Fold:
Amino acid sequence: MKAGAVPVLITGALLLTVACGGGSGTSGSSSGSSAPPTSLGVSGTGGALSITTTSLPDGLTGKSYSASIAVNGGNGRLTWSLSPGSFFPGGLSLDANTGSITGTVSSAVFGDVTFKVTDSASPQQVAMKTIRMTFRWALSITTIPIPVPGGHTGVPYKAAFYAGGANGNMTWSVANGQVPPGLSLTNVTSSEADLVGMPTQTGIYAFTVQTVDSSIPPQTATSNVSITVDDKLAVATGQLHTAYAYEPYSQTVSAANGTPPYHWSFGAYFPAGLSIDATTGLISGTPGQGNYTLSVVVTDSSSPAQAAQQSYSMLILPRLHIDSSTLPDAHLSQPYSSYVPYTGGTGNLAWFVVSGSLPPGLSLQPQYGTVSGTPTQLGAYTFTVQVQDSSTPPQTVQGQMTVNVRAATLTLQPSLPQRIPVNVSFDGVAAVSGGTAPFTWTLNGGALPTGLNLVGSTGEISGTPTTTGAYTFTLNASDSSSPRQVASSTYTMTVGQALGRNDAISHATTLTNGSFAASISPLFDPPTASSLSADSDYYRITSVGGATVKVTVTAASLGGFNSGALDPVLEFVDANGVRLSACRLPGNTTTNFNSSCIDDDISPGVNQNSQLEYLVPRTSDTKVDIFAHVFDWRGDARPDMSYSINVSGAFLPIQFQNLASLPDFAANTSIYYSIRATGGTGTLTGSITSGQLPPGLLFQSLSGNPWTGLINGGTTVAGDYSFSIQVSDQASPQQVVSQQFTWHVVPPLQLTAVPPQTLTVGQTTTYQATATGGMLPYYWSVYQWSGVTIDRNTGLMTFQPSAAGQFTYDLWLVGSGTIDGGTQWMHQTYSVTVNP
Structure:
């Protein structure tokens, strides 16, 4: 791993894994490489038992670790353990008799470990403490290539040294020995140091490369290197310059050492269309597009003759090009994103607008060539885009683009109700979005409910429906854009008998815990009444014996609290409308619930809101319906008088939010999954009570409401695993709910394809790629050779080679994933010989 690699973080809510791996958890005392516990153990010093260790030293991967958990007090023999379910780095063991932690951790990891100490007194004392443990990657040096290659005099040389597990800044040096004359160590303060230059003297040179990071205390790593420098014949050209498909190419390669004159030739691999001059080493020709390996051979004139070979990689791409074009239309006030079309180029690209202007609200992303943003003005906008690649010298091309900003797509919204009452005045609007005002609405099929009419200039549908039944009709809406947009939508409206409101116990509104908005309306109740009467609202609240139901009504009007404001009254009644009597009124701070269940003012003359608390007097396993009755004391409620009703103490059953059958995932993948439970009273807690998770997965219980059980990690073992989770609340009596879950772990993804290895130019060959394991469906792809394509969904490969030679390509397979992080992929590189 290079510098900057981070360890695994494990907390009460999160597990982050990195490619270099992570630790695994254990519960209880663990055994491993530490010595067996003594038969006597450690005795307490008397008094209250406590853990005095507040922190543990950091550890390094692959290094022996030793630390202890110290305690104070306790009586009799002491026993150390881990809290059930606690994280503990894999490779470590905790001695139950001494509190010693020993072992070796193989992967970087850090997290909170909860230690537990008990004594043997009666009653037994227990002490617990959570301490952070951190293991960092030990500093190491990796060379590229491996091993460090030898050199030749007069030939450019480079070898790279990478620091793995580094913390902070690096400092490189040659600790001892001698590097070959002509070479030097560069980039000595970065994560990669390079040995570069041109050797000037033959010999065998042994030296030690050292790096030191900025840890406290600092880590030091060394690598012993031996380089042999000779004066044998060698190709001195380090790399070839960029080539472009179907364009003339020319570069001369050179040699060092040996006896001139030299003779040049291609080895086994070279792109079609290129040749090499045997006398001068000039490579020239017109190559086709592709990814090639080119092998150059040089022979000198000594006797016997020396020969040397050098291989080069040539990625031959089309020359950078932009077509002037019209990009997809943008729509006013709607997010927009489109790539500027281009072909060819090498490395990173840089994009600029060199003339003209983009639509207001849009911009060109300089790194990606994306025109994006939200347009704010209609019109057609033309601008010139320039792109530059990373070749040497860089290619620079321009193209003219046009973006038309049009009105947002006109859409009819589902704004009409699906059911309206018969013989009750109705007024609704077939709302539209997008488009350009003004709009026009027309009826384009079907029929409106009898008694309703459409206003074509506003989309308003109003009137009094007189006939029950289901009515289906289609509306068209057209705007004033140029060209005009037309949208169509079909609606279904059922005209039926009025369902009534919550002004009677028989159709009370059901409320759970929380705050809800309401109003006392209309002015006349019922609407056909000839005289003013007071409105009433009834609410059904379901609770359980022993619980306390608390309801608060807070009133307001558009004009605030004044002579015209609602003065609410709250009453608790049973299903027969009989007022209850086991209530506690506002201001009563005792435990007595012996008042009649009606309240006008929380504080007369000060606070006109109402509040009641009711003690449910039934047995604990019986659910009870209580009806909260809200009305205006004066009887002059008006439509603008609103109020809120806040409820607590309603019965909410604990419910799991996940299906019993959890989503499948593949072995050898990492997952992060949560199981949630809601409802109940107060904080929910949960645990696994039976069965087991797939081996390698960790379970963390996060108390709260909702309760969350986090499951994360990975397993290498396929199979079916069942386990039960139990969740309980803080109610009295307590709710306890269990549910069994089943997890199916499928075998890991494996490629079983062995495509053809020999093909012929101009002949088409098909082959069905296959795989086992992983999650279906599979998704296939191939890269690096234009002679083969593959169907993304079926894996059917089609070979159509156009040039003879030796080629390689990568076959990629991605399995589907249903859990975050559970997608699995793999690839295989294949070689193929194409005969003329």
The longest strand covers residues 824-835. The radius of gyration is 39 Å. The chain has no helices and 74 strands.
